Amino acid sequence: MRSMIRRYAFRSIWLLLSFPLFFTGCNVEHPFIKKAAFKDSLSISIEFAGEPDTDWATNPGNYNVYEKRDPDVLLSISEVILSPDKRTVIIKFDGEINQTELHVVALTPIRSQGKDLGAALLNVKRLYIGELFAILIGAMLINNYVFTKYLGLCVFFGTSKKRDTAVGMGITFTIVIVASAMMSWFLYQFVLKPFELDFLQVVVFIGMVSLSVQAVDTVLRKVNPALFKAFGVYLVLVIANCIILAVPLTLADNEYSAMESLMLALGAGTGFLLALFLMSSVRERLELADIPPTYRGLPIAFVTAGLFALAFMGFSGLAIF
Amino acid sequence: MAATKKTNKELVINGILLENPIFRLALSMCPAVGLTTSIKNGLLLGSAVLFVQICSSCTIAAIKNIIHPRIRIPTYTLTIATWVTVIDLVLAAYVPVAYKEMGIFVKLIVAFAIITMRLETFACKNTVSASFWDGLGMGIGFMFGMVSIGFVRELLGAGTILGYDALGFKPLLFFVLPAAGFFCVGIMMALFNYIEAVYNRLKERRQ
Amino acid sequence: MKEIIRITLGLTLSCFFAAMIMGAAFVITDRSKKQNEYNNTQATMLGLLGYGKENPAPEELRLYPVYRYIVEEDGETYLGYMVPVRASNHEAYEFLMLDLQGRLVRSFPLDISLKRAIEDSERQKILKETIKTETAFAYQDQTVIACLRDKRVAYLLPGEFTGFKTFIEVMLALDPQFNIIGLEIVEHEEDPGLGAEIEQDYFKNQFRDKSFDRLKNLAVIKEPLPDDYRRYLEDPDTLSAEELEKIRNQYLDKDIHALTGATISSRAVTNGTKNLVKRFAYRIKILDEVIAGHQIPAVI
To answer: Which chain C residue is nearest to residue A100, measuring alpha carbons?
Structure first.
């Protein structure tokens, strides 16, 4: 049964992750330009489909670069280098460029082999999939909802006594949170925001949570009774979990898009699963240890969680993408 | 459980000591760990929870006869969510600086198990006035728990009490970190266990 | 069947009541919330300029907000500024549309008072009403220009940039030559004890009196704060006037001392402030040229 869960989990995760591969970050609309991307913190590289004229390509005056949100402030270019194969130019700037912002490169009419190929407007930004992964890793490790944001503790301490219980709770929780986060996103974007009903956030989101729990309950009962027997009892506990409400509130606050909300929910769910797994492994061993009577049970579990929280603090500031 | 026969004073004491939400019932521990970096935050959230608890208890006790048994839980959730929204709007309007420090914890009161549990076990079987005193006890118990942890963490971590410098030497940064929240709650729970053990031993010795 | 109808009816009624209560609470508290926000911002701005309870601002001090927009019309991008002007004995706004090279393209008057223009929704409404075409106005930011008896005394820049954790919101006060008068941290989500120390006097007061030229290449050095500098930043009342002058001149051209254990937050604030001031100085110069060149009756 565990291998079945694993198969389902892997298949669905692969499906979800392959979607954003269609959202690459470099948008080029000129036939002569193949790619434009950030090269490092000081330069942008542009790859041409053919060979532009050397004197045109190395003239900084032919390139106007600005951040999309500040179109009137042109970034100052220190020099433009043409690569040995004459197909790539590297634009070097005087100061560091902010790679998190969308940049626009406006090229004056490109000259290649004496012919005028027209002007071009290029959008340069980091890969979208990188941003999505950053949110996923953020919710899972850097801002782990249990150890860094201390939410969902009641359920956490209640179900982390045995490893099987913990893993079951974690998986159920991940499914419910993804479902409820997506539904909450829909409602927020299409009902709450347009009608300026922001103050109804709490009621609507908790309603969505109850609905998701009910939906997952019914679906699981019909589709896979065996699975339901194993995990059904945890569904009720999901509602009492603070995280299940914190995720929709966060995605409403930060105005995430659909993909980003999905990543946040996935990250929160898997982070919770990870925390539960770690905690249950330790607590199973604690049962056999010699602990003073006043500390037995919850107090020592809290101290353990504190140690985990200290360890997770090490992830603070992690920025791979 | 039949309607309680305790007096109002006993209900309040029950909420603070015997059935303290944080230390004895081990419910609603998220803010105990997260928001106890200063006493002020503890007081503010404690009063918010007190407000929601009393209002929800009284509302449910008042309409307990008209609620259809099958939609009990959604009704409780709706009541709590309504009162949480109200206190959230009020706090955001009148104490914006402190409200920002509390972040989303005010909105998360709706997910606290303690309030739903109190409604389920007490308010739907008792009168409005009894529910009021029980809610008061629970709320004060919660506030007491938050303030006691906050007192330790603020004194040792920031060197101040309610903003006034109280420590002579440089404070220990560790106590302001979230990890210390876990440690402090765990140690205080152990302390309450110890007090209870001693109390029971004394009671036995007296008999 | 009757059961389900009863249940549904009961739920709908309770939802309706709940919505009524919440709606009432929202309406009552919304106005106070906006009023409190406005008061807090005003207090921060006056505090930066040196006024407070003991030193109230003079009657003739006026704070004029200038709102910046990005305008999209027929596929072209323009800059838009809402500038307060004098219009036949009362104050109103004029919207100036500039192209990206800084030349005035169009200007039209907006019949909106200074008080109403504080609300973003009101500004959008008046813009849509005055320009009936398919133009898109995207609000960017605002600058508050402090004028004393018709002369500019300070620029107040509210700004937001990325910090170590999420974002840091600041309020910057500049004198008419773009030297920093003061820096105030309005909102942030940094770690307590580490990044949150940016709101302490011994960090943010280091930015005071830094000149515009010095700011352009201001860096962050990872050295501990000298004791006399710390006393100057935190408790200036304990030093004599000549000691204050001496310490001030000694550290005037030095870089910013980073916070212990929060280098990234310190760098974020320094670079964010640098960017804010550089961009503002560039834009206000262009705006002033347009106002002077086209004789716009601006009150700033």
So the answer is: C162
User: In this structure, what DSSP letter does residue C259 have?
Assistant: B
| Domain architecture of chain A: domains with CATH | 2-17+129-315 (no CATH), 33-126 (2.60.40.1220)
Which chain B residues contact residue A298 at CB under 8 A? 26, 186, 189
DSSP-H helix ranges across chain C: 2-48, 120-130, 201-204, 212-216, 227-234, 241-251, 263-293
Asked if A69 lies within 8 A of C140 by C-beta distance, the reply is yes
**Residue B161 and residue B159: Cα distance in Å, rounded?**
7
DSSP C158-196: EEEEE-SSSEEEEEEEE-TTS-EEEEEEEEE-PPTTTGG
Complex-level ipTM: 0.81
Which residues of chain C neighbour B75 with C-beta distances below 8 Å? Answer: 11, 14
**A126 to chain B, minimum CA–CA distance in Å?**
30
Selected residues 55-74 of chain B with any CB under 8 Å from a CB in chain A: 73-74
* Domain boundaries defined on chain C: 1-57, 61-141, 153-283
Distance (Å, whole) CA C231 – CA C240: 12
Question: Is the Cα torsion angle B146, B147, B150, B152 positive or negative in sign?
Answer: negative
pLDDT one-digit tens code per residue, A181-223: 999 999 898 888 888 777 888 888 888 888 888 888 888 888 8
- Interface-testing mutation among B78, B104, B153, with chain A (most A C-beta atoms within 10 A): B104
* pTM, to two decimals: 0.80
**C-alpha to C-alpha distance for A79 and A264, rounded to whole angstroms:** 41
Tens digits of per-residue pLDDT, A29-87? 677 888 888 888 888 888 888 888 888 888 888 888 888 888 888 888 888 888 888 88
